[in-house]
Specification:
mainly alpha, Sodium/glucose cotransporter
Length: 469
């Protein structure tokens, strides 16, 4: 199937992009200070919290990437949205109170309160590296979408994507990603539900699916292998719990009740999103197996929906990719600005300087993504996302849980060691044994052992006991 856009397609896309752009401009008008930019002035309600979380998680991986993986392997593609939903439930039911009650608006800043200044730059660097890998995944999705629609060069597609990212987050911060997240999430939900139902009917329902595919691997959650697919789902759990963007969304809530409600709304709504992409991927595999895997979803939308509506949904898909890219970039820029620039370079920087530097970091990260994409075109989108989540989890998860629940037991050296050893073992294992045990397991085990052994056998100096704990 070849993707060809008509005038009606373009009209639907243009109208949708215009409306969302106006939402972004309105969001930008709310930003007066650096605090507004990074945490929305802590005025976010439950819908805005959910919009920020879903606006980041519902991106290229959960849509284009899920359809791509389903096209190749089937239902194991559900792990991204299923794992993300489970993680949001854990935040809402167990961690929101710890995050919202804290005084730090960044994950590394939260850790510093328990483990001391040294863990700030360490966790920021490794977490930013992990988040950057997911930004690359969004870049791959954006390039695939734009090149399939407009037959442009990948470099031009990447450049246009960066401009769109800057438009939605450069001036809006949390307000931009949150409000745009609410708008795009509604459109994206409508698109995936409609496409999923349509694909299910067109393939002949459950009978058609079972006639077209054998039970294994196509209808198994472990179609690639238990090792690979369970690690994929587990990486989403630990990765979301360890990511600045979601921490920031909860911290920005008006109250703990709003924070919990926003996280739980996300937990309920995110998993069904993957089913639509899976059904589209299976339909396309059964009927058009020669389709490039990263173009499965946009090709289906263009060729099977009324042109104007298809244009609206393609624009929503583009916004989903750009919104996730923007939200992740916001998280990286916040950590680099507050946990490195403010702490170690310009401790006396005023509010306006911090706001300027955060925007500069956003620009630099976006440019670096374009450069990085040039050498990785055609790779699997979800592979980058799973690797990203695992690296973040190996860095942050156990130091964060220790600081949140056992601040008097964990030692500063233990948290620092875990934040170094965990991601290093993850990266080394990934490079030494690319086809063996998933690197998430040894990385997490190394971090946990570092936390436990050092906390048990080292002494804490009296003055390092966290105040108020």
């Amino acid at each position: 199937m070849v993707l060809t856009l008509s005038t009606s397609h373009i009209a639907g896309m243009a109208l949708t992009l215009l409306i969302i752009t106006l939402v972004g401009i309105y969001a930008g008008s709310k930003v007066k200070t650096a605090q507004d930019f990074s945490s929305g002035g802590r005025r976010a309600g439950a819908v805005l919290v959910a919009g920020t979380i879903m606006g980041t998680l519902m991106g290229g991986a959960s849509t284009i990437g899920t359809a791509q993986l389903a096209f190749k392997y089937g239902f194991c593609a559900w792990w991204f949205t299923l794992g993300a939903g489970i993680a949001c439930a854990v935040i809402g039911l167990g961690l929101a109170s710890k995050i919202h009650a804290g005084s730090a608006d960044t994950m590394p800043g939260y850790l510093v309160n328990t483990y001391g200044e040294s863990i700030g730059p360490i966790s920021s660097v490794f977490s930013s590296t992990g988040i950057f890998l997911n930004i690359v995944a969004q870049g791959l999705a954006a390039v695939a979408l734009l090149t399939s629609m407009f037959h442009m060069s990948p470099v031009l597609a990447a450049g246009i994507s960066v401009l769109l990212v800057l438009a939605y987050v450069f001036f809006g911060g949390v307000w931009g990603t949150g409000l745009v997240g609410v708008a795009k999430s509604g459109l994206l939900y409508l698109a995936t539900i409609l496409c999923g139902v349509l694909a299910y009917k067109m393939v002949g329902g459950w009978t058609g699916l079972t006639d077209s595919f054998p039970p294994y691997p196509w209808f198994s959650l472990f179609g690639r292998s238990f090792n690979e697919d369970f690690a994929a789902g587990f990486s989403l759990l630990v990765g979301v719990l360890s990511t600045q963007t979601y921490f920031q969304a909860v911290f920005a809530a008006q109250s703990l009740a709003k924070a919990r409600a926003g996280a739980l709304i996300s937990a309920v709504l995110i998993p069904p999103l993957g089913i639509g992409g899976i059904l589209v991927g299976l339909y396309m595999r059964a009927n058009f197996p020669a389709t490039p895997s990263d173009q499965v979803l946009p090709v289906f939308i263009t060729n099977n929906l009324p042109p104007f509506l298809a244009g609206v949904f393609l624009a929503a898909l583009l916004i989903a990719v750009i919104g996730t890219w923007a939200g992740l970039t916001l998280g990286v820029s916040t950590m680099l600005t507050r946990d490195i620039y403010k702490r170690f370079i310009r401790a006396r920087a005023d509010d306006q300087e911090i706001l300027l530097m955060q925007r500069i970091f956003i620009l630099l990260v976006s440019i670096l993504v374009v450069i990085f994409l040039a050498g990785n075109l055609g790779s699997m989108i979800l592979s980058w996302s799973f690797l990203s989540m695992g690296l973040r989890g190996c860095t942050i998860l156990f130091p964060f849980l220790g600081a949140a629940f056992f601040p008097r037991f964990v030692k500063p050296l233990a948290g620092i060691a875990a934040a170094i050893v965990g991601p290093l073992v993850d990266l080394i294992w990934h490079n030494l044994y690319p086809r063996g045990l998933d690197p998430l397991y040894p990385g997490l085990l190394a971090a946990l052992l570092a936390m436990l052994v050092i906390s048990l056998f080292s002494r804490r100096k009296p003055e390092t006991i966290p105040r108020g704990k």
